[in-house]
Each structure stands twice: as structure tokens, then as C-alpha cells.
Automatic annotation (TrEMBL):
Species annotation: Cyphellophora attinorum
MF terms in GO: catalytic activity; molybdenum ion binding; pyridoxal phosphate binding
InterPro entries documented for this protein: MoCF_Sase_C, MOCOS_middle, Pyrv_Knase-like_insert_dom_sf
Protein name, UniProt field: Mitochondrial amidoxime reducing component 2
Span of domain MOSC: 140-312
Family annotation (SUPFAM superfamilies): MOSC N-terminal domain-like, PK beta-barrel domain-like
Length: 324
């Protein structure tokens, strides 16, 4: 079997769950996902997570990493008057003064966080996405690991993996070829083409056939064609600085991709209707279409755009397991 050999064309992180992401040329891939990816999120008055599913305007909240000041800069649209900044790695003194401990809930699962108590932060986002109701910004408490469930659970994966605030699993990889195939179908129906940003992936690759990712089992970034690479992937990745990832599930989609990330307008039908016609391919979740693959890193290393991407192994046994 000829396996996919490609390259990374884009890397994206989404510091705040469901808000606008950041394109980067290089980033550290950690065991919990890409560096700073989904380390923050918004919660409602009951401390339940908020996403584009409930409020499409969240996509208009821009994020920026200020490496010099070591801050996350958050801006509503391009309005500098509606901008705040918080430390990337708050120390004990900052946490004591500006936050309070909180237990937050993602899909029925509780995890520990720190909730920002600055009235300016609370008012800014309450007025924009809360429609006057309570909205709070939280950051993950690193002392409380959130253990992956479903396809990434210890019983299935064979090891314990943890994640910040993604729905279930640390890394989402998407293929330009598959997006092009979908766009071809949309265009044939007189619909506008869409961008990969709608699917909020972390790693975007080119090359390979459309939908070949459906059967990926193990992939390598900065791939090596060394003779031992398939037999002893962990050893080879350690020697070459590569990142190996277990591809544990297809990504079952909701209607978030129907939201235009530039305008927050939600299309009532597309691309959901088209995907539903031919991408309900996973026996584990027949009522949702699939786009992209969910992965769990085996090791940590720096990755960058242009790096080689290689599929080391494939499987015909992917079966989505509910992770919440």
C-alpha cells in the first residue's frame, strides 16, 4: 500500500475555545496539543462552556499572542477600545489578585480552571456574547489534568493522554485535498466555496487523495523514511526531532462550519447538507458527517510549516466512540 507523504501548509492555534484562531509558521506540539491551543474559554453563569454553537459572534473575537510581553491579547473585531490582555503564564500573585478558582464543565465533564474577576473583562464579553447575561473568561488550571475520553481514553489508547479545552482530543488534522473535493461539490450546486478555517483544524496538509485521511492510524510530522521508521517509530522520532501522533478518530462535525468566520453569519444549509449526503461514513456516529482526523501526540517537539508529513500506518477499524 502506498501511504500518504505530504507536507504541512498551515498551522493554527485557537487560544480561546471557539474564538478566532492564529496562524503560525512554527509551534511546539505538546502532549496536550499545540502550544497555547484552547487554553482559555468562555463559560456561562452555570460555568458551562460556550461555543459558536450557541453564539456565532464568538468567531469575531480575535486573539493574538504577544511573545514580547508574554500576553494573550483579545480584541472584539478590530476595535482597540474593546481589547484586553492577560498573561500567557500567570504567576501565583496574579492569580490571587485577578482570578478565582472555578470548576468548569465541558460536555458534562468537570475540570479545574481560574476565572478572571476583572470587571472590565466581565462587562466586555457579557455585553458582546452574553446578551446581557453573565459570561466569564477562564483559563485551564494546569495542576488538574483533563484526561482524554472516548477514542483517546486510557483503555483504548493504551496510555493516559490529557487535553486542555478542546471538546475531546488534542489535535485536529485536515487535508487541503478533501476541502477541494468538498468545494467542488458546493460549487456545482451554485454555492460559494469555503475555507479550511471553518473546520478549525490545527494542522493542514496538502498532497494525497481526498479523504485518504479516513484510514490513517499513525502519522509523523517531519517524517523520516529511515528503515526503522515503521518498526520503531518512537525511537526514530526521538532521533530526528519528529512528532508522532496516534490518529484515534474521525472528527464528527456539528454545524459550526456553517458559520462564516469573517462575518459570523450562519448559513442554514451549507456545508452541512452537502456533507450529510456523503460523509456519514463512521459506524460509530451515523447521524453526523466527518471531516478531519483527531490525534493524540506521542511526544513533544517543535513543528513548522513546510515540514514533511508522513502516514506510517493505516487502519480500516476506525469507530467513533463518544468522548463525553
Amino acid at each position: 500500500m502506498t501511504l500518504t507523504v505530504s507536507e504541512i501548509t498551515e498551522l493554527r492555534i485557537y487560544p480561546i475555545k471557539s474564538c478566532r484562531g492564529v496562524k503560525v509558521s512554527s509551534i511546539k506540539s505538546t502532549l496536550q496539543g499545540l502550544y497555547l491551543d484552547r487554553r482559555w474559554m468562555f463559560v456561562d453563569a452555570e460555568n458551562k462552556f460556550l461555543t459558536i454553537r450557541q453564539q456565532s459572534k464568538m468567531t469575531l473575537i480575535n486573539t493574538k499572542i504577544d511573545e514580547e510581553k508574554q500576553q494573550l491579547v483579545i480584541t472584539i473585531g478590530d476595535d482597540k477600545e474593546k481589547q484586553i490582555a492577560v498573561p500567557l503564564f500567570p504567576d501565583h500573585e496574579y492569580l490571587e489578585k485577578h482570578t478565582k478558582p472555578a470548576t468548569v464543565n465541558i460536555w458534562g465533564s468537570d475540570t479545574k480552571a481560574y476565572m478572571y474577576t476583572d470587571p472590565k473583562i466581565q462587562a466586555l464579553f457579557r455585553d458582546f456574547i452574553g446578551d446581557g447575561k453573565e459570561v466569564n473568561l477562564v483559563t485551564k488550571d494546569p495542576r488538574d489534568p483533563r484526561i482524554c475520553a472516548g477514542n483517546g481514553s486510557p483503555e483504548v489508547l493504551g496510555r493516559q493522554a490529557t487535553v486542555n479545552f478542546p471538546d475531546v482530543l488534542p489535535v485536529l488534522i485536515a487535508s487541503e485535498a478533501s476541502l477541494a473535493e468538498l468545494n467542488g461539490r458546493l460549487k456545482a450546486q451554485g454555492e460559494e466555496e469555503i475555507t479550511i478555517e471553518r473546520f478549525r483544524p490545527n494542522v493542514i496538509i496538502k498532497g494525497g487523495e481526498a479523504w485518504s485521511e479516513d484510514s490513517w492510524k499513525t502519522v509523523r510530522i517531519n517524517g523520516s523514511s529511515a528503515p526503522l521508521s515503521n518498526w520503531m517509530p518512537s525511537m526514530v522520532s526521538g532521533m530526528t526531532g519528529a512528532v508522532d501522533m496516534d490518529v484515534v478518530a474521525r472528527c464528527a462535525r456539528c454545524q459550526v462550519p456553517n458559520v462564516n468566520p469573517d462575518t459570523a453569519d450562519k448559513n442554514k444549509h451549507q456545508p452541512w447538507d452537502t456533507l450529510m449526503k456523503y460523509r456519514r461514513i463512521d459506524e460509530g456516529i451515523k447521524f453526523k458527517p466527518c471531516f478531519g482526523m483527531l490525534c493524540v501526540p506521542r511526544n513533544e517537539a517543535e513543528i513548522e510549516v513546510g515540514m514533511r508529513f508522513e502516514v506510517l500506518a493505516t487502519t480500516e477499524d476506525h469507530h467513533y466512540m463518544k468522548g463525553f
